[in-house]
Amino acid sequence: MKTTEAENPMGDEILDLPAIAMLRHLQAGRNKNLNRGFRKLNVWREAIDLYAFEKKILGDVKGLPFKIRDQVLDSAFSISSNLAEGYCRKSIKEYIQFVNVALGSAGENYSQMYALLRSGEISKDIFDEFDIRHYSVENKLINLAKSLSKKMKTGQDWNSDYKT
């Protein structure tokens, strides 16, 4: 049985269904490594979802200057990016530093969205939905920073033997 190009995850020659299943199985195992462990973090996933939510709602705001939209989205994007970068440094001290940078980006993002609310560019309903999502991400970041600080104080360090 042949598949359509839309069903082909590699975008090359058309594969039959068993070949696609095998390819997906290989990709699932191949794409896992210690450096991508941040993908398991709920806070990272929620930060990605926050960015996607903001991108969608700000795309619907008529007349919002591109510069402002871009700054708001950059601060939201920065949260998950800093989590990933800190995780990949393989040092608890550096990880904490990047979690704190992510917290700074979260604060910047909240301030920007609040300014959009106060200026009437987004509704209270949209802001309230944003606030629920943002609050969850922010609290998870704070808890992650506390947990990592506790580990550092007890002398634990990153396990850098690179075993998956």
Give a written overview of the molecule.
There is one protein chain. This protein is mostly helical. The chain folds into two domains: 32 residues, no CATH class; 117 residues, 23S rRNA-intervening sequence (de novo design (two linked rop proteins)). The chain has five helices and no strands. Helix 2 runs antiparallel to helix 3 and helix 3 runs antiparallel to helix 4. The longest helix has 30 residues. The N terminus is likely disordered.
Mean pLDDT: 85
Strand content: under 5%
How many DSSP H or I helices?
Answer: 5
Helix content: 55-70%
Helix/strand-derived class? mainly alpha
CATH class of the largest domain: Mainly Alpha
SSE inventory with pairings:
Blueprint lengths: L16 H14 L11 H18 L6 H23 L3 H27 L5 H30 L11
Helix pairs in contact: 2-3, 2-5, 3-4, 4-5
Structural descriptors:
5 helices, single chain, flat, de novo design (two linked rop proteins)
Short description:
This protein has about 160 residues and is an all-alpha fold. It has helices at about 15-30, 40-60, 65-90, 90-120, 125-155.
